[in-house]
UniProtKB/TrEMBL annotation:
InterPro entries for the chain: Flagellar_assembly_factor_FliW, Flagellar_assmbl_FliW_dom_sf
Any Pfam family: FliW
PANTHER family attached to this UniProt entry: FLAGELLAR ASSEMBLY FACTOR FLIW
Predominant location: cytoplasm
HAMAP family (alphabetical): FliW
Compartments (UniProt record): Cytoplasm
Protein known as: Flagellar assembly factor FliW
Subunit structure: Interacts with translational regulator CsrA and flagellin(s).
Protein biosynthesis keyword on record: no
Organism the protein comes from: Paractinoplanes durhamensis
Top-rank lineage group of the source organism: Bacteria
Length: 132
């Protein structure tokens, strides 16, 4: 269990992540000074964590279209209040980002959903390069 005294805001999955139905509450734990890498960590089981990053510094042209169902699940209508986080896979030779299934967080309510952008053409394993 994550200690609530750490003061990290809880992100509640409006829809459980595929494969993890029992895990609904997560926190973002910053992993570097730049604020580019985070551990999306389950409150119930801190050993369950996903390496995530905002895609903009690595993929400046990344602008997926978010479906109305996502806005309904998050109970919001304002796309400017959404934060996108790409799930990262760190490998020995390369690090990739899953641009097909970002985690979408409403900054106001701290509710989230992982979206599968099927048919978007975005790759599951996009090689990461810092854009600046």
């Amino acid at each position: 269990m994550i200690d609530p005294s750490l003061g990290l805001p809880t992100i509640r999955m409006a829809v459980p992540m595929p494969g993890f139905p029992a895990h609904r509450d997560f926190v973002l734990v910053r992993l570097n000074e730049d604020g580019l890498l985070y551990a999306f960590t389950s409150i119930q089981d801190p050993d369950l964590r996903f390496l995530v990053a905002p895609p903009e510094p690595f993929f400046p042209d990344y602008a997926p279209e978010i479906d109305d169902e996502v806005f309904q699940a998050l109970n919001t209508k304002d796309p400017d209040r959404l934060l996108l986080m790409a799930v990262i896979t760190a490998g020995a030779d390369e690090t990739t980002a899953n641009l097909m299934a970002p985690i979408v967080v409403d900054r106001d309510t701290m509710r989230a959903v992982q979206v599968v952008l099927s048919g978007s053409g975005y790759p599951v394993r996009a090689i990461m390069h810092r854009a600046y």
